[in-house]
Amino acid sequence: MMRRGPQVYENWKASLCKDEVQSISEYPLFSDARVTGQEINKYKPYAFLNPVPVDEYLGCFRPIIYSRIESYLQFEIPDMSKTGTDAYHGGTLVDEIAALVSLALGIRIRAGTMTRDFQDNIDPRGHPVGWRRQPEFLNIDYQRLVIPNAVSERPLDLLSPLSSIPSMSPDDANALIKAARSYQKALLIAEEDPSMSWLFLVTAIEKAAIHWKMAGVNKVDILREFKPRLCERLGTFEKKEDILSIVADEISNLMGSKKKFIEFMMNFLPLPPPKRPPEWGQISWQESALKESFITIYEHRSKALHEGTPFPLPMCDPPFRQRNGEKVWHEKPFALAYSGAGGTWMNEDIPMYLNTFEYIVRKALLKWWLELGA
Q1: How far is CA 207 from the centre of its chain?
Q2: Tens digits of per-residue pLDDT, 258-300?
Q3: Which DSSP string do the residues of 190-227 spell out, in sequence order?
Q4: Domain ranges within the chain, ordered by starting residue
Q5: What is the pTM of this model?
Q6: Of 23, 44, 150, 252, which one's alpha carbon is 20 to 30 angstroms from that of 325?
Q7: Which is it for strands 116-119 and 110-111: parallel, antiparallel or unpaired?
């Protein structure tokens, strides 16, 4: 039977069937954050080992977790008679694990290459591997971080949502992995290209929103809702129901993307952060105000994608933080207007910092993740 879900899901399902383990290997997960604890037996066939790096200075990308993977998957020749991208996201099994860990912990994570291979015919205790170079990382100015939340200490028990993965459907797991990969990329690139990070975060929500909104929905009904004139024209052809079904299957995901984005954000809206700046540095957490902010953000996303206009410069700046009091990062730019790099923006056009949006996106995706595995 051909695999339909992502590898991390299919491998987990195979392990529950008591299939014979094919291989065991370890991969480093690099980050500039810190983790505490270990998770060795809780998420079999995956273990998360803490090497406890001793360097304490900010901004050092090093292995903070070693992921041990028991692989139960046997190679299967895929169906080569048609194009299929349901499980395609451009990465491998360990890249899927890295993305899920990044989303669960809210830190920058990038998978390295294999460092240890466990094979009985070499050494059952593991044989060191150095076939490929480890990844290189961006230069980051740790004096002015755009997403300072990503550089912090996280306990590995925050990985608990992982346990829901084998209970999902293949389609649910595919949607989760693609959303997590976009979130992971947003964090990795945020300090070098924050405008692109905005796009990746919006994409993460869009992928989740499309899957959430389309679950159990008749695609032809969606086509009739958003393209009634097209349906009317298609209805003049013979076998009109077959034609409507084919067209709906091709373009239903593209219709109402803004509406799906807003509805997802409002449905999975998290509580405000536990620590907040002074009131003049806060965004309003009222639903009506947040909805307007999300509409503005989506409009910036459309201009960035279709007009080549990056997200407003103030929304890409490091957040402000006062020197006294709680020293909590501000959630939005506070001036009445901003100008720089050839652009000018009024305050209502720059609803929040990237750091704030990342918090909302991650918490919303985590709520959706738990719903998928319920």
Answers
A1: 9
A2: 888 999 999 999 999 999 998 999 999 999 999 999 999 999 9
A3: TTT-HHHHHHHHHHHHHHHHHHHHHTT--HHHHHHHH-
A4: 7-192, 214-361
A5: 0.88
A6: 150
A7: unpaired
